[in-house]
Amino acid sequence: MRRQTSDEFKSLSGTARQAGVQSRMFGVFHDAGYKGLYGGLGVDAIKTRKHIPPKEQIMDRMDTTELAANQFRMTQTRDKLARRQVRNQEQAIQTHKQVGKEVREAIRRIGGTPPENLPPAEHIKQVEKRIKQATPKLELDGSDAKGLIGKDSETLPEEGLDGGATPTKSE
Fold first, then answer.
1. Cα–Cα distance between 99 and 104 in angstroms, integer?
2. Taking the complete model, does pTM exceed 0.85, yes or no?
3. pLDDT digit string, tens, across residues 10-58
């Protein structure tokens, strides 16, 4: 999910560029979306509130709920900028902030936790490292490693699962 959200961030940046956002204003544009979603808090204020070190990327510390809210904010902003054919930097920034507010309002109506109140998740690099080092939870061997039809591979019929004959090499 983190990779998908990162890809969406890049896609939104491209759409923002087409909407007239200049490179030097990308930080302002993206911060506007966070401010809408996080009740007025920009990236630096969110990091401070969640005790995330300043040099860390905020998305690297989001759990799936928070990533999903941000991804939804970005996809909806991207689509709205394109649909409305926005070609004005200030209008693009305001659109992003407004979409963030609307996503926040939807979370509130559902009864969800505002994203600024969600605890920071384990850093994505630590998660990746832990997953790499984890031993598989389930290992099957011998009689436990049966196929879908519940028979050992040694006792399977020569026919395929669909009942047809298994093709020979010459077919």
1. 9
2. no
3. 999 999 999 999 999 999 999 999 999 999 999 999 999 999 999 999 9
